[in-house]
Amino acid sequence: MCASTFARSSYLRLHVRTIHEKAKPFACEQCPATFGHVSSKYRHYRTVHLKRRDFKCDRCGQTFAERSAVFKHCRTVHEGSRPYPCEICGFRFHFKLHLTQHVATVHEKQRPHRCKECGACFGQRSSLNRHSRQIHGLVTKRGALS
């Protein structure tokens, strides 16, 4: 299956069940979500249902549900890190998703958002919404056409 090795057979069984068989035997009692590890279930319950935000940024006081989110926040907000460079033009991004969107719309010229009124196409939904307001007088609600 894979080259992973484990100190205990129970760890191997858990790995096979959750990674290779994609088993999610731990169900949330509050919603339909299921998880491969009991710790994931508890983290979900604590952050989603109890809305716990136990991790705080020392610089600005913003709170987060997970420690990793604090590190990501500090890297992008306070340190200005842009670890994702575009291989085509060299522009750098804070988030991988923004790099992916950049490549698709700028370099590959993808325009997946089409105006229902006139057929004009746009790379970003926000551009379509702005067009719809300015050209057609349509009102948008929370970033989506109503």
Question: Can you summarize this structure?
Answer:
With 146 residues, the protein is α+β, with helices and mostly antiparallel strands. Helix content is 41%, strand content 14%. Among the domains are: 9-49, Double Stranded RNA Binding Domain, CATH 3.30.160.60; 113-145.
Topology:
Blueprint: H1 9-20, E1 26-27, E2 34-35, H2 38-49, E3 55-56, E4 63-64, H3 67-78, E5 84-85, E6 92-93, H4 96-107, E7 113-114, E8 121-122, H5 125-136, E9 140-141, E10 144-145
Antiparallel strand pairs: 1-2, 3-4, 5-6, 7-8, 9-10
Outline the structure in words.
The structure is a single chain. The protein is built from five helices and ten strands. The chain is α+β, with helices and mostly antiparallel strands and 146 residues long. Among the domains are: 9-49, Classic Zinc Finger (Double Stranded RNA Binding Domain); 113-145. Strand 3 (55-56) and strand 4 (63-64) form a beta hairpin. The chain is extended. The model has no long low-confidence stretch (mean pLDDT 88).
Alpha-carbon distance between the termini?
A: 49 Å
Helix content class: 40-55%
Mean pLDDT equals 88
CATH domain class name of the domain at 9-49: Alpha Beta
CATH architecture of the domain at 9-49: 2-Layer Sandwich
Please describe the structure with a list of short key phrases separated by commas or semicolons:
5 helices; two-stranded antiparallel sheet; extended; single chain; alpha+beta; 146 residues; 14% strand; Double Stranded RNA Binding Domain; zinc
